[in-house]
């Protein structure tokens, strides 16, 4: 899709960002979800990464195995009260890969197709997607990679920001996808470290609180290229501020058609959705 194109009604056509691949349709952050999103025609794959005990960059939203969507290596369910004890940062990747995260349907996504699936490595996702793109002879896919950190989790659920950023940059550098990658984070420290280490890579500040954007930017110390707000935070004032700062705007996570329409009319840069099929169908008929 040409993100700079206009719709039939004259609005700018937003990029379609597949959230965790296409979480509404296939198990999140798995190879089948990413491959299906690519086949649908997304512009950007949004995914989350954590780090294993042996320094591997693993695609996962939580730095532990969520009891809602994963099973123990023996196929048994995970006790929700014990899920944080299944800490990926304390496990080598060979052990992480033995858990299943594809046979338990997320309770909020009844349309999900189930199949055995594990948490893949970031480099594995990139290689699989790049091969698929070549086979389909379609436009290259871009990657929005969220680094999941918070200060309280340092050295417990993840490395410190400098090491975390270095590990991720090493993978995207080795896989030659730097020019098509944006680094996302709620954690200002991650974005500050990424700017210092790789100033040529676009950064996205994620927000979901009521703190004014100006305060976030003062704490961050610079204006990143992209703002990723929870979609309910968008007000005319925030839209005007983002436009004045010349930032790209990619709200999340938008799954209903009414909100998708509103955001298209607001001329956002992109829309992150669990159901890229819905957004693509809407854009095709717009």
Tags for this model:
286 residues; TIM Barrel; nine-stranded mixed β-sheet; 9 helices; 9 strands; globular
What does this structure look like?
It holds the Pfam family GDPD. It comes from Hymenobacter lucidus. InterPro entries: GP_PDE_dom (IPR030395), PLC-like_Pdiesterase_TIM-brl (IPR017946). With 286 residues, this protein is an alpha/beta fold. It has a single domain (15-65, 120-285), classed as TIM Barrel, CATH 3.20.20. It is 31% helix and 15% strand. The protein contains 9 helices and 9 strands. Strands 1, 2, 3, 4, 5, 6, 7, 8 and 9 form a 9-stranded mixed beta sheet that branches. β6 (203-207), α6 (213-220) and β7 form a beta-alpha-beta unit. α1 (31-40) runs parallel beside α3 (122-136) and α4 packs across α5. The longest helix is centred in the middle third of the chain and has 15 residues, at 122-136. It starts with 14 loop residues before the first strand and ends with a helix.
Compressed to H and E, one letter per element, the order equals EHEEHHEHEHEHEHEHEH
Radius of gyration: 18 Å
Structural class by sheet pairing and helices: alpha/beta
Report on the biggest sheet. 9 strands, mixed
Tell me the count of domains: 1
Count of individual beta strands = 9
CATH class: Alpha Beta
Tell me which CATH architecture applies here.
Alpha-Beta Barrel
Characterize the overall form.
globular
Percentage of residues in helical conformation: 25-40%
Mean pLDDT: 96
Rounded to the nearest angstrom, the distance between the terminal CA atoms is 14 Å
Q: How much of the polypeptide forms β-strand, as a percent range?
A: 5-15%
CATH superfamily membership, which one? Phosphatidylinositol (PI) phosphodiesterase
Number of helices: 9
User: Which fold does the CATH topology refer to?
Assistant: TIM Barrel
- Low-pLDDT sequence parts: none
